[in-house]
Amino acid sequence: MSDGRVNGAKFNYILGLINLAVVFCIVWLLWYVFMHADGVMRLYTPMYGFSLVAVLLSAVILISQVLGWPADPAKPLAAGAAIAQGILGAVLSLAVMFVVYYLVFWLFIGKYGVAYFSVPALLAAGGTGVEAYNVQEWSSTAILYFSTAFLWWALVWNLGFGRWPWQDDNRWVVGWSRVFVVSFFSIITFALLFHPHVCLLFPEAQKMVGAKPWWEGWADTSSAFFGLGVVLCTLWWVVFSDLFWEGRPWSWFNREGEGNLLKGVITFLATLAMGLITVYILTAIFNAIWMEPYVGGQYTDGPDWRFIHMGEVAGFCVLFAFIWKYYFNNWPNGLPLLLRGIIRTIIGVAGGMLIYWFYYSSLSRAVLGKVPGWAQPGDSPLVWTLLFLTVVLIQGQFFHNWPLRSAGREEGA
Amino acid sequence: MKRRDFLKGMAVTGAAAGVSGGLGLLPKSAEAADKVDFGHVKGLKVEVLSETSWFDNAVFKKDLMDYGGAMTNQYKIPWHWDNAGGYMTKITVYPLEGDPKIFLMDTGWNNGWVDYIYDEKSDMGKLLTSKQVDTMILSHWHLDHYWGVESTLKRNPKITMYAPKTYYPEDMALLKGGKNVAKTKDGKEVVINQNKVPHQGKLVLTAPEGEKGTGVYQLMPGVALKMYDVPILLRVRGENVMYFNVKDKGIVTVTGCCHPGILTLNAWARRNVKDYQPYGCYGGLHITLFETWDPKFDDIIKGVKAFKLKKVGCNHCTGWIWAEKAAEAGVPIVKGTNKFKTYKRTSSVAKDSNAFLTNGDTVKF
C-alpha cells in the first residue's frame, strides 16, 4: 500500500499547488504566443493549431509511453540531471512533431499517397475551394483525427498489453515494436472512424474513396465527431484506471507481472464499453440541459457538437487526472485501493468539472481570448486542454516531475 | 425517445426542440408556457440590396489566414479594402391594415460599394434621406454587415437602430463617429474602418430575453426581432433575427448570417410562437461560405427537409455549394436571376445555377 511518500519524505502539497500555478502560467504564455487571437503567431485558425497541439502531445506519448523513454520517470533524479533530461525530452518531442507533421504527413504520405494529409499536395491538386486557408484546415483535420487514433492505441496498449509479446527482449526492441503495432492499429482505426468524414470535407465528396459514414443512421450525423467523442470518453477511463486505480482491475490479468493478450483484449474492450456507457450518460445529461438534438441542428442543437463536447468533457477530466497525479501526489495514498480509487475518481470528475467551469466562464475570455458561450464554430476546449496536458506530461515524464520529485531533497509536510 | 422518432415527431406534430434564450441553457421544465403572439402581416417583400460582402473569396481567405484564421479578432486584420463589398437588405412589410413599412437590415462594409448600391442600384439612399426608412436592424457586428455604417448615417443619422448588446468597444467607437486601425505584418498602421457621422438616433441593444421577458422585440404587428447570444467567428457574438408571421402562411425568418442555424430559428419559433407554421426564410445561412464541405452540411439539408420549409431564399454566407446541393436534394430553394451581372462588380464564386438570390433579386413571402 502506498503511503504517498516521495523519495522518503512527505509530499509537499503547497509546492504542488505552486508548481501547478507556474505550469498554468507557462501554458498561458504558450497560448498567447502560438494560439491567442490577439497573440503573436495565431495558429489557432482553428484546425491548424488544433492539429499541431495534437501531434505534439502524440510525440510526447510516443516517446514516453510507447518507446518507453525515460525508462523510469518515477525515479527521483538530481536537479541537474532532471533538467537536462527534461529539456532533451521536450526538444525531442518538438523534433518528432515537426518530422511527423511536415515531413511524414505533408511531404511524404500526403505528397505520394493520401493527398488530404498534405497542404502542398492539395494545392497541387487544384479544384473548387482549393486555396491555402481551406487546404490547411482540411489537412489539419485529417492529421488531428490520425493523432486521436494514435493516442487511443498508444495509451490503451500500454495499459493492457504492456510489453507483451516482447517482454523477454530489451527495452528498445519492446519500444520500437510497440511503435509499429500502435501505428498499425491507429491506421485501421483512422480508416474506420475518421477517413469517411475526411472524404466528405471537399466540395466534391470523395465517395469512391471513402465509405458513407456507417454511424450516421443512429448517431444522426455523418460527422466523425461521433468517433472522436467515443474515443476520448474511452481514453477517460483508460487514464482513470491507470492513474487513479493504479492499473486495476486490468492488472489482475497480469502473468508474471507482465501484460498479455488476454489482459490487452479485456482492457481494450472493457474501457471501450465504459466509454460507450459514458457517451450514453453524457447524452442524457446534455439532453436534459439543451434538449434533444436533431439532424442538422447547429450549435448546441447539433448531434455532431454533442459528440465532440463529450470528448471535451473527457479531455477536462483526463487533464485533471494528470494534474492530480503529478502536483497532488494522487491523493489519497494511505487507504485501501478500493477506497482511494473511489475518492480519486470523484475528485477527478469534480476537478474536470472545475476546468469545465473555468473554460466556459468569463475568466477564459481574459486568459484565452475566447468568445463567451458554447459551441462556437471551430472552437474547441480540447486545443487548450491538450496543450496544458502536453506541458504537464513533459514535466512529469521527461523532467521526472522535477522540482517536486528530486533526489536527496528533504520535503517537509 | 430515440432521436429519429423525435425528429419524426417534430415534423409531424410540431413538438418542440432547439435552443431557447440564446445558448439553450433552458431546461425542459422552463419551456414557454405562454407562447408569444406577435400578430400577423399580410406579406413581405425582401429585396437583395447587396449580398456580396467581398468579391474574391481567395483574397478574403488570405487576409484571414495571414492574420490568424477564424478565431482572430476582426479588428486586428488589415483587410483588403478593395475586396470589400457589404451585406444590406431592404424589407418591405405589408401589414394587415395600413401602409407598408420598410426596414433596412445591415449596412455593408465598403462605403464606396454601399453608396453605389444605395444611390445607383436601389432607392434605399432616397428612402433613408427622406426618413421613409427610419429603422435599421443590425443583425450582428461582423465587418461586412456593419463597418459601412457611415453610408447609412450620413443619410439618416437619427435612424433607430437595433443591435445586439454583445458589442465590443471598437464597435461602439465606430458607431459614435470614430475609426479603427490595424497593423500590417510589417508594423504599418492601416485604417480599417471609419465613420464621420455619429449615430444620434435611438439605439436599442437587444438581449436574448427580449422585451418584458417575452424573448422578442415587437417591431410592429406581425414582426418580431429575436437576439440569439451565440459565439461567432472573428470574436463576434450574438445575432438579431427578424421573424414575420404571414397570415395563413406561417413564419418567415430574415437573417444577416443566421449563425445560430436556420433549424434553431424554426425550432425556437415552434416552441415559442403561437400557432407556428413553417413557411420560409431569407438571408445568409452561414454554411459553405468558404467553398468547402463538411458532413454536418449534409445533416442540415436533411434537417431543412424535415422542418418542411416551403421557400428557402438564400445567398451570401450560405455558400453556392450548399444551395446547389440542397436544391438537388429537394429543398425548395428560391432561384435568383442574372441581375447581378449588371452591377459594376460581381462575386468570383457566382454561378449560372442561380441557386442564390443575388444582388438585385427579390423574393416575396
Automatic annotation (TrEMBL), chain A:
TM stretches of this protein: 12-35, 47-67, 79-105, 112-130, 142-161, 173-194, 224-245, 265-290, 310-328, 337-360, 380-399
Cell membrane as a keyword?
no
Q: Does the keyword Transmembrane apply?
A: yes
Question: Sorted alphabetically, which keywords does the UniProt record give?
Answer: Membrane, Transmembrane, Transmembrane helix
**What is the designated name of this protein?**
Uncharacterized protein
From TrEMBL, chain B:
From the Swiss-Prot or TrEMBL record, what is one GO molecular function term? Answer: transferase activity
So which residues are the signal peptide here?
none
Provide the transmembrane region boundaries.
none
Which keywords does the record carry?
A: Hydrolase, Iron, Iron-sulfur, Metal-binding
What the entry lists under PROSITE patterns is as follows: TAT
GO cellular component terms, A-Z: cell envelope
Start and end residues of each Metallo-beta-lactamase domain: 100-183
* Binding partners and assembly: Heterodimer of a large and a small subunit.
UniProt cross-references to PANTHER family, sorted A to Z: METALLO-BETA-LACTAMASE SUPERFAMILY PROTEIN, METALLO-BETA-LACTAMASE SUPERFAMILY PROTEIN (AFU_ORTHOLOGUE AFUA_3G07630)
* Name of the molecule in the record: MBL fold hydrolase
Q: According to the entry, what is the taxonomic lineage of the organism?
A: Bacteria, Pseudomonadati, Thermodesulfobacteriota, Desulfarculia, Desulfarculales
